[in-house]
Amino acid sequence: MAKWVYAFGGGFAEGGLADRDLIGGKGAGLAEMSALGLPVPPGFTLSTEIGRLYLASGHVFPDGLADEVDGALAAVGRIAGRRFGDARDPLLVSVRSGAAVSMPGMMDTVLNLGLNDETVEGLARVSGDRRFAFDSYRRFIQMYGHVVLGLDHGLFEEKLEDYKLARGLVLDGELAAEDWQAVSDLFKGLVIEETDAAFPQAPTAQLWGAIRAVISSWNNPRAVAYRRMNAIAGDAGTAVTVQAMVFGNLGETSATGVAFTRNPSTGEKILWGEFLPNAQGEDVVAGTRTPQDLTERARQETGSEAASLESLMPEAFAAFSAVADRLERHHRDMLDLEFTIERGRLWMLQVRPAKRTIRAALRSAVEMAGEGLISRAEAVARIEPRTLDQLLHPTIDPENGADLFARGLPASPGAASGAVVFTPDEAELARTQGRKVILVRVETSPEDVHGMHAARGILTTRGGMTSHAAVVARGMGKPCVSGAGGIRVDFKAGTMTAGGRTIRRGDTITIDGGTGQVLIGAVPLREPELSGDFATLMRWADDFRTLKIRTNVDTPADARAARSFGAEGIGLCRTEHMFFDQRRIAVVREMILAETPAARADALARLLPMQRTDFASLFEIMSGLPVTVRLLDPPLHEFLPTGDAEIEELSAAMGIPPARIRARSEALAEANPMLGHRGVRLAISFPEIVEMQIRAILEAALDVGEASGRPVELEIMVPLVASKAELDLIYQRIRAAEAQVVRLHGRAPRYELGTMIELPRAALAAGDLARSASFFSFGTNDLTQTTFGISRDDAAPFLNAYLALGLMPSDPFATLDETGVGELIRIATERGRAVRPGLKIGVCGEHGGDPASIRFFAGLDFDYVSCSPFRVPVARLAAAQAALARAGITGAGLPASAEAPAV
Amino acid sequence: MAKWVYAFGGGFAEGGLADRDLIGGKGAGLAEMSALGLPVPPGFTLSTEIGRLYLASGHVFPDGLADEVDGALAAVGRIAGRRFGDARDPLLVSVRSGAAVSMPGMMDTVLNLGLNDETVEGLARVSGDRRFAFDSYRRFIQMYGHVVLGLDHGLFEEKLEDYKLARGLVLDGELAAEDWQAVSDLFKGLVIEETDAAFPQAPTAQLWGAIRAVISSWNNPRAVAYRRMNAIAGDAGTAVTVQAMVFGNLGETSATGVAFTRNPSTGEKILWGEFLPNAQGEDVVAGTRTPQDLTERARQETGSEAASLESLMPEAFAAFSAVADRLERHHRDMLDLEFTIERGRLWMLQVRPAKRTIRAALRSAVEMAGEGLISRAEAVARIEPRTLDQLLHPTIDPENGADLFARGLPASPGAASGAVVFTPDEAELARTQGRKVILVRVETSPEDVHGMHAARGILTTRGGMTSHAAVVARGMGKPCVSGAGGIRVDFKAGTMTAGGRTIRRGDTITIDGGTGQVLIGAVPLREPELSGDFATLMRWADDFRTLKIRTNVDTPADARAARSFGAEGIGLCRTEHMFFDQRRIAVVREMILAETPAARADALARLLPMQRTDFASLFEIMSGLPVTVRLLDPPLHEFLPTGDAEIEELSAAMGIPPARIRARSEALAEANPMLGHRGVRLAISFPEIVEMQIRAILEAALDVGEASGRPVELEIMVPLVASKAELDLIYQRIRAAEAQVVRLHGRAPRYELGTMIELPRAALAAGDLARSASFFSFGTNDLTQTTFGISRDDAAPFLNAYLALGLMPSDPFATLDETGVGELIRIATERGRAVRPGLKIGVCGEHGGDPASIRFFAGLDFDYVSCSPFRVPVARLAAAQAALARAGITGAGLPASAEAPAV
Q1: Residue B867: active-site member
Q2: In angstroms, how far is the first alpha carbon of chain A from the final one?
Q3: Which pTM value belongs to this model?
Q4: What is the pLDDT of residues A93-115, one digit of tens each?
Q5: CA distance, residue B793 to nearest chain A CA (Å)
Q6: 8 Å CB contact of B672 and A674
Q7: Predicted interface score ipTM higher than 0.85
Q8: B685 with A797: Cβ contact below 8 A
Q9: Residue A506 and residue A420 in contact, taking contact as beta carbons nearer than 8 Å
Q10: Into which EC class is this enzyme placed (chains A, B) (predicted)?
């Protein structure tokens, strides 16, 4: 016969920690503590299978379950020394949910179950506290009425308020035993009024009603929403734990509390928590009384006048301290505990891994490794890589109140304050004047990049997490809030409005790109700290990983930042970003608008020294580390001005009629620029641009290599390649440009030639491409766009709906789609290596900084991933975890969430 | 030792027809004729391997070749009874190129080789014609001087003209033997002047010079360009045939001529050709004398007064007739022959398959099958499917002179005349007034479709072979010339200008979409004829094919045309095309601009009966054949007006402020609409549109099925699907709409649900998709776009360069790219069938009408291809050929070109 009920208590337990899926997190923790001989009120758990069967069968329990429950309940009674339903000395129980994955507060609980008009008298007698007994009874009726019978809480509160009003009572504490008895009667009357049935008096009927309600609460809207937000499967179902009640509200030697084995904010190894004397758990949560500190030290630090548990109940405290210590050593992790002290006796009610801040996660992991509690590998495996992002940027000090103006998407982490400006030119002017500004745009385009560089942060009212603003800001490591649709910008008036309030040009705001908040005024920020535990853990991570971490940068500032974060080279240098510099864009435009080869050559000749200088700086900073330079990629129309004013300006500067500029712009315009005249197609149409770029790259490498004595490890790659024929033609032109460098300088630096793989066809033709290319760099942004047929710029209106409807597990531009895009990558990797065994393979799309994607790339034995500078630490850690996972070491089961503890 | 030289002559030959690759087409033909015992002047062929070795080695011949040539030359002498270089009775030879694939006139030839100051006297003596001997000598010097020594023809012509002028001579015929001798001397002097070396007198030196020159002419610019245009490999090289000269210019009993075994224009079985008495081959080509008819019948038909060969030299004619007949029976094909009659004796100089018109190809194939010369399968295999296009449309009568205004791309075949209009509304107005017009646009968009329907033909000044105009016009079977970049349109003035000439609104022009010509005035047209040989051959083709041919149509007129061309169902009905109808677009716009679900529902309710009528007509016409309906695909902004005038109009009609229309348009605008909010994504965002479409489809099918007693074979498919989750959601909505139909009507028709495969991800996830979809339809247009990352709308600027540079073998939007797109199709087909063995698979992209692509689809055992109506016959034939090719029956080696014969 199937087993559905798992008992625990009295130093014994069926099941333990390993059985979370079967008996839920709560049940597993209680079973484990019970088996360890710790003081746990006896109880039993109905398995998650029962939960699933019940929901799937149309609310029917399997035959035999009732017998199992009866048996388990009798066993609980034997241990507790009381019988369920015994009118003289009743056993009361709690009925709680417990899913495999913690969903705190999302499902329902019933306490004090087993009370009725008879047993309440028994409880009064045995406890010697009639007021306690009737208070418990009315609480039970209210809770049961709400959870099981579906009545509104407010109805009960009203009755209680009416009662108090009629008698001139204000605080609950003023009600005596008789009052609570009267209230209980009123509540029972309410149940009859509302349900046309009496409040169930039979304890067994109460029990089954509660079990059914708790199981069904798996599908309440709150729980469904939580699962969707946290990507928890909807068909796992919940277990139900039925446990003997203990009471923290049985007078001054009773108490109830919660504790963490270490400080969940800082990670410091000190018992940390709070308690309430003479109270039940719900009082702590309700917040009507102020909880007191657990330890004397904490009391002194907070300057509280209320006694600590340590001083108030030294014996119980000592017992709890010992239990906490034993549990942490047993679980080898920082824990979140719940306990009750009933007339001086300690009872443990819950144990689970503690939610903690990233700082606490780092410190506890490093210190536990120091204490020998866990290995360094386990310490590394326990940190969720994404959470590192919070450490690398200034953040809003959560201690400070803030005035929320609007909310957008958390597009690029970090917080920044500054005066509002509405154009990139204003931003640039402000920088030259030493003023800090936040650039506000509807959306950004490459023409805004100089303004984005000049600003402290970027706020857009349109565009998603992968809009131009978001991608560029992340690349720059600058805070960005995107798609703040509630804000309306009036550029002419120089104002923005949201929720009826208006901010003017020059007013100060603060944006938090980690949360999407836009705040009024300058909010105090907390600066990042990259030494200490962070540095230690990253060093350990580096010892484990094999994947190299490079960075996608185009500017010296970004390159320096990336090296400080541990980048081991540049995996993507986008040469076009250099073109957008204010001083250069004019020459670039001349080059594009040139009507003769001679005019174009002239403009290119002026660009050459500029590009050479750019490359030289990057090569110097990277000092012998590999640098991958990508040839010009975007369609030329991206460089041309579009607004009338800008066209007039360019016209005046170049002495070309505006109409001709407009005509050329229109001639270059494309219906689908993403699939247009760009990448290698430009290199084929405009050989002279390739020639200039190659000269600039090779000459810079030559100079830096000779000046520094360290040869530049140079890699040149061609974007948007679809076939070997394209690659061969460009390689031929590159070799020709090299020959020119040799003619001019007598020599040329060594370099490797590779290709981007960013089109499905390139992935399929990878065997061919590998005959010519000595390395592959996967451009997963474009590859995702073409594989899915989704433009990142246009995806927002439907992609959000897709995610909400569960049609996609995650945004494919954030986390690699393994089924489609991943398969093309696998195919390309296999075919490329089959032809050229030593083929170097890396990735330079946004996915290079995404932990789940990095695990995938590591699984294919990539040589490196390349990501934006601020993602480098994330990638280092994720790469280490990928290597550890292959060796069987994971942080699973002990989630170190970034969420601050709820208490 | 390798063999490089292949001899023929005297009833013997080394090699034959099967050796075209080795000894070239010319050499193979001569060898074959010689082996058949036909009168062929003896000679030998240097293999193509020699050509390749010579060019690859830097112009060096392998050791031993000279000996082989000497031996072969001696053998020729023995058969001819003359020795090469013999001063008394010299053997003269011709040296000609001969590639495996015919490249007529592209490479060089030297005749009369072996003449020098001594042998010319011997020739004079033996021939008894001193004038002939010195005329031959001067011709040789000129030809050799040009081909081998690189001198300009003009230099020789000048000398000759000066000589004639000085002596008052006008015609060449007036020059006597002495004159030609003097001219020979002048020519030799010219050679010394220009080359600083005497004209080579040693026949062996002459021979090797000529061989080198002929081999090298493989790489002359003319030949290179020809190969590029005709997709002939550049590394095949040419063979060289050295053959004893025979002379058609040895008096009145000599002649030279060319002939076809059947009429190359009509295919009629009658010897057809022309000759010149007393002339050499080059005289026929030069066109200075009018050639005479071969047969009496032809002479009578043309009304020529010059005698026919049949009457002039009856014996030689009879001999030639017999040879021609024997050769046709031997080759089992219509042939192109060259012959010379030397003093009454017939010599055959060339045999090759005849170039012929498509009419001649059809008639000769059908008649040869009737004669039992070839099988029906071979007849079917011999017709190039593309050429059928010419038969299905009116064409410009080539007999008529025409005034060329400009030239564009041959975007959609057929010719049409009409008055020029510049807007779709003018076109529509003209139709209601019964006027024929040609719609001229810079480029077209979906808003122009009603005007395209109303016009007789479409001319655009921008856009390629796969632009909107081209694709839509082909779909409609309407003539279209696209991308006529030389024309400048002035819409305000209502004029268009090209080459300094201006055409005004209302002026009549004629366009030929088969050639890209734009002609001034109304040029007479030749109407298509689909019966007779065409019908016979198509009937035969249908017997051989297994692939079904469906059609892509949206209107009743197209559906009827497609059935008349033999379509076996509709493979793609684009429901959105129905939306563009003038009467409906307003309602569609209301639906899109609706600001409440109720307003949208109202507009949809008005669209429902319209769509139902549309579907009902198509179902009726298809009368029980399968019909595949695709749900709405294009992004909604395509339906909104863009011009101010149109917006004002819509604003007035709908009572919505223009600003709101503009705002909605802008909100819907996309950076890359091809990768945007379209296809299944629309169906997900706007369930009410799906609901309306499904109701319209099912109700129409119900009505037609019951009225006709023939149930509609209905297939519904979802566009732009990337994952099974999308498909399942839409299927669920379709089932819900079906349930609604059942509620309303008590029943619903049967239908199948399938998916388009037009994204790489869909191809990779095909196994998943096949779990839900019961058929696949490959949308190869979109699949090509995403696989290559190339937008068809934007490809022209670089795709043409790609084709010119040889970076792509062909336009991937015209002929399927088998390496990339084809592999995805293969993967999808395998995975889909692995999951669902009976999975129905078809293709509905443009490639469904391309013969090479059809061969690929047939190879994967597709169930059907679907193409535009006018491509249906092409597809039927191509499908038959694909089936025959798998059985080993091809038309290869006997190309039936559409090109008219050059003579």
Answers
A1: no
A2: 42
A3: 0.82
A4: 999 999 988 787 788 899 999 99
A5: 7
A6: yes
A7: no
A8: yes
A9: yes
A10: transferase
